[in-house]
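Hi U.,

Before I forget, here's the chain from the pilot set. I'm dumping it here mostly so it's searchable later in email.
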Amino acid sequence: MSDDTKPRFSFEMSESQRLRSVKYLGNYGIRRAIFSKILDDVLDMIEDHGGIAIGILMTDNVKPREIIPSIQEAEQAVNKIKNGG
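Structure:
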């Protein structure tokens, strides 16, 4: 890989997801900032727990916000702010 080429992580999304991402994450750099942190947390979980973590993340029984630390922390902070501290 040359010095001017940055690695990319891409995946398909639904039209609904695309519209929501444009609406809420349209500012320059915000997607990278958010998803880089989430990706690090997911990779850390897989590194620590292997295939079990992948299986749990892929099921519909658990929401990512319940097990991915960066999302969990963000949700707790938002709830604290909404509830007045």
